[in-house]
Design brief:
Blueprint: E1 3-9, H1 13-29, E2 34-41, H2 45-55, E3 59-61, H3 64-69, E4 75-78, H4 85-94, E5 99-102, H5 109-119, E6 124-127, H6 134-144, E7 151-159, H7 181-196, E8 200-208, E9 213-214, E10 217-218, E11 224-231, E12 236-242, E13 251-258, E14 261-266, E15 272-277, E16 288-291, H8 312-329, H9 337-356, E17 360-361
Helix pairs in contact: 1-8, 4-5, 5-9, 7-9
Bound molecules: 1,4-dihydronicotinamide adenine dinucleotide.
Length: 364
Amino acid sequence: MPEIGIGVVGGGYMGKAHSVAMAAVGAVFNTSLKPRLEMIAASSDASAERYREAFGFARGTGDWRTLVQDDRVDAIIIATPQELHREIAEAAFARGKPVMCEKPMGATLADAEAMVEAAEGHVNMVAYNYVRTPATQYARKLIADGEIGDVTWFRGEHTEDFYADPAEPATWRASGRANGTMGDLSAHMINAALALIGPIASVNAEIETVHKTRPGGDVTNDDHAQFMCRFANGVMGHLYFSRVSTGRKMGYAYEISGTKGAIRFDQEDQNALWLYRMEGPEAERGFRKILTAPAHPDYEPFCLGPGHGTGYQDQIIIEAKDFLTAIATGEPVWPTFKDGLDVMRIIDAAWQSAEMRAWVDLPV
Ligand code: NAI
């Protein structure tokens, strides 16, 4: 059974999630490539050793270049802050190694463009895990199959409240465009909008800092943002992103209206998809709550019971399966770095729009 040596750069929140996913994916999906946890890199030898022991890697290193160069590391997952994505990806591709990079793919549009160039001819994927829930995969299929008719409206949001309290101190999150709400949170829902509806042709955005000072310093990046958008297929849309949305913990939510029906989803209830069909007696019409089940994409390998549900870590395991499939087949699996660049272009256009207080068109 062919093994593949996995190297993970970063052992924090996402580094752990990817390590656990690579440890489990062979068993869950019976993948043709069986991952071997070969090496983990962190910002020091001591932290790398802690992660190595906890997650079960063979080796750890405080220097990510050592990991990239290592002959037993066959594929690389980048789970560091965005400022490091580009350098690590370029080094990995220069060694001909497949890369899965955490969102939003670099700290700037220039980073993302360079990463797409470096990825040419190599297996590459961006880690947009939320579009991989069985519910959202099914929503995507319903729309593509025309089940809600012609789409007329899209509303998407990604709202959290980790910075809702102005007494929360100013950490690294309070400065740097890449660490604000547009740079960090918006990418997942923009990616979902592209997946569910299609390319975005123009945006008109407002971006704002709500709490301008916090204990420990000034806040120099954005707390929340909204934009109107027009999709290339003519659909009208609205997007909202916030880290100060009191009460919202994982408000990755969307609502889509069509000529024959509508769909609603909220990640805080990730095993439910709400579907409205414009059919049957008027008195009995309403949104139906569909619980995820083996009939939905990528559910059955986790559990045979309908309504039992999958969780956050399972999305990362689905993503690991898709990355291994791309490596095994040599066929790109969505979303690739090119798709990640599309998201970065929209974030950049939103900034331009907010600064000019005007609509900005995107090449589609
Ligand atoms: P974190 O702060 O929890 O972990 C970052 C890791 O990077 C740490 O282990 C640190 O040791 C490592 N690191 C920093 N500098 C390094 C260096 N020079 N060499 C090697 N390792 C180094 O950050 P978190 O939340 O895991 O974020 C990492 C990435 O994942 C970011 O790009 C972020 O946007 C993305 N992210 C994605 C999420 C998702 O659901 N897909 C959720 C949270 C973050």
